[in-house]
Amino acid sequence: MPSLLRSATKRVSLSSVLKKVVGRSNRRRAVELAAQNATLPVNSVGADVLGLIFVFLRADSDLWIGPPGDLSCLYVSHVCALWRHAALNTPELWAQVPFCNARWTDICLERAKAVTLCFRAILVMQNHELLSRILGHAKRIGRLDLHIHGNSMYEEDLAAWSAGALSTVFPAVKQLSLGVDTARVPSGFAWSFPVLQHVTLGASVSLIENSCDPTQIISLELFSRSLYHSHDNVSLQTFRHIKHLTITGPFRIDLIAPITLPHVVEFSITGPLQWECTAESHLSLPRLEELSLNASSSGCSNILQRGILHCPQRPRVRMQINDTKNMFWLMHWLSFFAQQAPSISVEVQDVSESQVNTRAHVPRFWDISLLIVTGRSDQNSRTACWRIEFAHPYLVSDKAATDHLLRAISDIFHQDPISNMVNSLTLRNSIFRRGQGCSWIPVLQHFKCLQTLILEVPIPELFQALLAKPPTDSDKSDPAELVRPVLKSLEHIVFDCLDCSAEGWFKMCHGAATRSRTRFLGIVIAYLDERTKPLGTFEVKKCFNLTITEMDLIKKRVTHFEWDGHGSEENADMI
Question: Which domain of life does the protein's organism represent (predicted)?
Fold first, then answer.
């Protein structure tokens, strides 16, 4: 039992949990610290928040061998009287019914009382008792997930069960997920679910086409259980009344004639798709709000190359790229959607064997994400409110891949009018690596109309980036010349260095960082003098130990100066 939960006399500070558990990267640690002091009654917290807290408390223990997934409440209910009272008086926590153990199944069914149930089962062996138990609680089930583990040796059992379920009605099931080739499910099976709204099916769509009223389906996800299956034909005409559509290949999309899906608001394409289309055919999505594409998918490349997709409402676009060394799609997609999409999100994942440390828990996928979010825009004046974030959650050891990414981003923003439309830039934590800060200089100099600059990177690395000599242009070796266009147009600048690694890195190179800080602030203050109007906001958050002179110089040139007092007491008294 973890030391945090050994004492049954300690009460849990749920008030602190509610403030810290949402929107924090170290949420589990926040819950652990808050669990030492109790001020708020447990009964005043909703089931969704309790479930989230229980997951964190459950993850703190390495001694518990119990049900997987969402059933952490079973573990927490044996910690102390306080948590047990909270768990037993919240039936919603027990609605996730497991089938890995008959005793745990009975416990959940008893404690869930009259709450709508969620049955989620993976068939790893013949289990007729499980399937018959599902039929016995048909009136209470709100979500039903049945999947086959591994090969299809148990598909016949599930198909036979579905045939027996024809005479049973599931009046409350709104979400149905069948991880089995639905071509083997008997016709009429879906009529057993009169209020079905969200469907996840494998391989065949015959269940939707032939068995139920398609107008009631809100969300449909089609996936193939094996990438080695032959392509199945999918007719998009079937999905005219669906609002959320996800297709995970391999499928063959029949698009011989122009098709309009008037109700689709979210469309996601992943996996190898084959588009059977003509020169005149296209897919029109008049109400599409969000489009998700995978750059490694041949089906997505056909969409762009052939101009198949017509989206008059300018949807948000989310793209995923699985190789940082192949940045063609990143540049091509950003150029394609820059004038059309109000929001573009690009996620880049790179796999490198050299990045995997087998002796430590190091993620295999190193994420580099580029997020572009726009606000209101005026197409006539070609102006927009763009917000750009560069984020790198981990320190990438592959120097060539990261440098290639930054060069590609630099090429993107060298194009007009993308760079001229950007007026808000956020640099998030750890995009810079030691010795690689100068790679950012070619990117930064393209933002000529920047109004807001938010810096959330470790400050020494940022100084190294801004003060290092540019590697390509020897005539402009002074970094002040490179940042001059950016600083002259700025209205708001925020230094917010809250990265967990910043403090240690700051101490390691404190001397160099102090000199760099002085030079950088000197550049900022010098160009503030050249402005015709004072800077709107100059905000400093836990980054500097500002001197009194520096603070006075800055405060004279800005209309609003904020500093959180991080540093000496003498400086804190000045604010």
Answer: Eukaryota
Instruction: Give the closest residue to 82 by CA, choosing from 49, 113, 37, 114.
Output: 37
3-state SS assignment for residue 147: strand
DSSP, res 472: S
56-66 residue pLDDT tens: 555 444 434 44
**Which helix (H) or strand (E) segment is 144 a member of?**
strand 141-148
Contact assessment for residue 260 and residue 287, using Cβ atoms and an 8 Å cutoff: no
CB contact set of 248 (below 8 Å; sequence gap of 6+)? 221, 222, 223, 224, 270, 271
| Distance in angstroms (rounded) separating the CA atoms of residues 204 and 188 | 15
Please report which confidence band the pLDDT of residue 539 belongs to, taking 50, 70 and 90 as the band edges. Answer: low
DSSP-assigned beta bridge partners for residue 493: 453, 538
d(CA 27, CA 55): 11
CB-CB contact of 223 with 202 (8 Å): yes
The DSSP string of 502-535 is HHHHHHHTHHHHHHHHHHHHHHHHHHHHT-SS-E
Cβ contacts of residue 523 below 8 Å, gap of 6+?
Answer: 466, 479, 480, 483, 487
Burial (CB < 10 A; 0-12, 13-18, 19+), residue 380, is exposed
Token couple for 182 = 């639905």
Taking a C-beta distance cutoff of 8 angstroms, is the pair 277, 254 a contact? no
Domain segments of the chain: what residues? 3-93
% of the chain exceeding 70 in pLDDT:
27
d(C-alpha 541, C-alpha 494), whole Å: 8
β 365-378/343-351 pair status? antiparallel
Tokens of 459: 């400050």
CA–CA dist 191, 166 (Å, integer): 8
Q: Which long-range contacts (CB under 8 A, 24 or more apart) does 126-134 make?
A: 126/154, 126/157, 127/99, 127/157, 128/157, 129/102, 130/99, 131/157, 131/158, 131/161, 133/99, 133/105
Using alpha carbons, select from 550, 432, 543 the residue that is nearest to residue 496.
Answer: 543
| Per-residue pLDDT at 17 | 45
What is the number of alpha carbons within 13 Å of residue 97 lying toward its C-beta?
29
**Position 368 pLDDT exceeds 80:** no
User: How far is Cα 234 from Cα 179, in angstroms, rounded to an integer?
Assistant: 18
With vertex at residue 526, the alpha carbon angle to CA 522 and CA 530, rounded to the nearest 5 degrees, is 165
Ramachandran quadrant class, 159 (left: phi over 0; alpha: psi -120 to 50; beta: rest): alpha
Residue positions counted in the chain: 575
Strand segments, DSSP code E, in 459-507 are 492-496
Indicate left, alpha or beta for 203 from its phi (over 0: left) and psi (-120 to 50: alpha): left
pLDDT at site 57: 56
The structure's pTM equals 0.57
Name residues whose C-beta falls within 8 Å of residue 163's C-beta, 6 or more positions apart in sequence: 186, 189
Q: What is the 3-state secondary structure (H, E, C) of 306-341?
A: HCCEECCCCCEEEEEECCCCCCHHHHHHHHHHCCCC
